[in-house]
Amino acid sequence: MSLQDTSPQKWLATIASLIVLPPWVWLAVRTKDCSQVITVRSIPFPRRTIWLIKILALIIGAGGVFGATTELGMSWLFGSVLSGIVIFFALRDTVQDISPSKPVQDASAYQAAWKQYRHLRSTYMRSWIWFGVAFLTLILITAFANRAPKPVQLGLFAFCVVAVFASVVVMGLKQLKWVRWPCPRCGCSFRGFWGRPWLPKTCVYCGLPKEEDAILNSQVKVPVSREGRN
Length: 230
Hints:
This protein is mainly alpha-helical. It folds into two domains: 8-92, no CATH class; 107-219, no CATH class. Helices cover 64% and strands 0% of the residues. α1 packs antiparallel against α3 (47-71) and α5 (107-144) packs antiparallel against α6. It starts with 7 loop residues before the first helix and ends with a helix.
């Protein structure tokens, strides 16, 4: 295949495949690691769920690799080899349960965890301000920069577009950390797998009441071993 006999639509499809396929291939090959990164290591998964995720990622990832190579005009044999490599490494991956590690159980750790939650909520809300400023600046430049020279217009427009895109990315990361904030008792996401937009009254996984740090000094629930009792 040469550059001359390839249409722009085909190159756009190829670029889209290069963007979409790698995460699915990574999810198929390293299912546990990828799942932990996506969920910020705060969601427990049983072994059966990990297998279902791996199978889905294999169908999309390996199938997408085969489709992308054939779409580029390469032989189906070459596409089959690449898909087989993905399947080979995916099946070599060890599949096991995912259980978030439990944090230290004492009053200071609980207070620090709730303080971290309030900090994450505050930084996420502030990220909306930066997004609004960047978006409003883009609108103003689009509306009133027509009197400036063309290079200046293009430069300002490109700068604002980059600023809006960067603010959206930062806002998404802040939201992910806020929504996946781990419970100070069990270490799992306080809001659960679906990450409901409001903070529930109790942890979805262990039932820890919201804002328990207000009564920690007298009622902190700390597991005590038999050796400690003796």
